[in-house]
Amino acid sequence: MKRSIGARTLAMPAPVWLVGTYDRDGRSNLMTASWAGICCSQPPCVAVSLRQATHSFAAIQARRAFTIGVPSQAQAREADFIGTASGAQVDKFAACAWTPVPSQAVDAPYAAEVPLVLECRLLHTLEIGLHTQFVGEIVDVKADPAVLDAEGRPDIRKVQPLAWDPAGQGYFGIGSPLGKAHDLGRDFGAGPQGGR
Amino acid sequence: MKRSIGARTLAMPAPVWLVGTYDRDGRSNLMTASWAGICCSQPPCVAVSLRQATHSFAAIQARRAFTIGVPSQAQAREADFIGTASGAQVDKFAACAWTPVPSQAVDAPYAAEVPLVLECRLLHTLEIGLHTQFVGEIVDVKADPAVLDAEGRPDIRKVQPLAWDPAGQGYFGIGSPLGKAHDLGRDFGAGPQGGR
What we know:
Oligomer: homodimer
Mean pLDDT of chain A: 94
Distance between the termini of chain A: 31 Å
Low-confidence stretches of chain A: 191-196
Number of helices of chain A: 4
Radius of gyration of chain A: 18 Å
Order of helices and strands of chain A: EEEEEEHEHHEEEEHEE
């Protein structure tokens, strides 16, 4: 019997991504976002939700573009710092000793040090409540050659992305591989229904 | 120097969640979704994107409700099967030997066997492209007492949720804890900017 624990944002895991923007004065900024996810395959899109109070919120509205950086678990300290400081007061690139790189694809910067970056142009803005969701079309993905596999795809074991636990408010690494899609579950469905 | 690898949905990690619905005939169904994420704190909301061709798509539109089940890594085989079969042809609850439980909060079912469940009423529908995004307000969360910590919150190390790798198309567990929010990065920002 399950226990009711109230109306709370307790789905897990959430990602830990770095949203890169230029503010109205042209300054590069990053913020950490976990209320986010891929939201469409074609056009390829990613959604990220921000509070209106953040410095990045106005920046996305002004430039209609952002980047999504996927930091490695070796960058967990930077990701946490970037989530606590405001770009209105602090140059977070400088504080992390990171280099802002202008995207060639959209009007937003990313950190050279982050292994995987999605370059997004703003497609939809959905006001939900405390958070507003920005849906960005992924116009290109840039990756460090060191994190690519033999087929040229980012290897999750090399990227080593972070996972966020919204219940315990902590950062986690990615664990062991458990299996491949359309393979792991192939023994199911041959029972009462007579196969797939 | 980063390499351009094209406009692809390569942000990671993505979640592995089970969307529970009643179809128009009142049959319980589940589908696996990874194009999903938390999208607002207040009201607490979760977004999940489905292709119009799925059986669950019409079900969410008809009942304006769904559940999000967070399966454990011990249920990775079931999650993969649920992502490959269609509820139009197969009773996935029966194939998994899982029990559908009617939500007390919304007009949708969930699997008794899944440790953590969010009960959602449809708040927004955003047509993006191949996928349409459904934003659901989380009206309650139900959890197995066995996965709760001393404060009554779901413990990610007990839930053992799955992570999805959209590049390698594989399932992963959650790895080691790396630190807590607003703590891990506290040594940054005391440099050139003179403190936070």
